[in-house]
Design brief:
By secondary structure, the chain is α/β, with parallel strands linked by helices. It contains twelve helices and eight strands. 39% of the residues lie in helices and 16% in strands. It has a single domain, classed as TIM Barrel (Alpha-Beta Barrel). 46% of the residues are buried. The chain binds iron/sulfur cluster and zinc ion.
Amino acid sequence: MEESLTRIHKAVQQATMRARGQSIKKRRKRNHSKPSAKWIAPARVGRDQGTALAVVLSTIGCAHARSDSGGCTMCSYLLDGSQSMPSSEQLVEQFKNAMDSLEGKKAPLSVKIYTSGSFLDPDEIPEVARSEILKIIGADERVREVVLESRPEYVQDFVLSEVRSTLGDRIIEIGMGLESTSDTIRTVCINKSFNLETFKECLETAKGHNIGMRAYVLLKPPLLTERDSLLDAIATIRDAQAMGVTTVSLNPVNVQNDTLVEKLWNRRKYRPPWLWSVVDVLREASEMSDGWMRIVCDPVAGGRRRGAHNCGKCDSEIVQVIRDFSLNQDPVILGKPSCGCLQQWEHALKHEDSSQLIHR
Ligand code: SF4
Ligand SMILES: [Zn+2]
């Protein structure tokens, strides 16, 4: 990376650390036998509609966020984790507790496992707990799809081999925060700490086991204008499709506690993306898609001040449009919703200061 970008990255890293401050030490004591969160919702499962369980296992949290590299500029998931490490038995108990929510639900089911970090990191989920959790899924015939979230450094051939053999012929995806295919944006604006080459290697390793890749694409990292972030998200989705990613999950930034994004937002130097930008990216993405790659989006805090939002009047309608599109994959749903604030958004695209640091 050029010297000036390296310097900016260092400053971003230090500001991220400062924003996190002492918050890690103040993490709540948690019941190690219960997950941090679990929820079920209607979802697209393969080509059909079904039910998805998402569970956030309570672990010690993301190694990147715990390290001196400071974690990502928009993420405070670490704060959902626990100060001390649950035992393998407790982690399995957490998972069983989440699976109970699927009682009485009919196939097809999808199970998504998050950990506020990486499910495949043995420091978060010891191998014995991982194997037991995979076996529980493998024994449930209703489950047709499994998503396991991980950073790339834990995606290894022998691990995916175990995942594939335990889960049989189910649809499997590794969920990974690619965020952007621009190494500059991913490094300087997000402080992600891996490069595109590493992501591609993981993708190829996964393909070798017939395991897909669910790439999270970030909309509006800090230090980018609305327009530049919109263009970067579209370019990233195009690249993701070319690389053979199976699902793109578009994640509009929401303002989380004790992050660099929150510090900027408090000083009025950051606005979460407009919902119009989300719709625009989804529209462009579905136009370029060959129909094989899924494109989903569930804007966290959508319509609220801390999430992607418009003017307040049209927000709930647009959030619903985005959710319906994710469920049905039908671009007609994105249609041409309208509101007076559309012009404000167009104005922001044209006139927001374009000298803010990063261009592709
Ligand atoms: S976004 Fe993912 S990799 Fe980055 S700090 Fe959060 S959990 Fe860790
Ligand atoms: Zn509006």
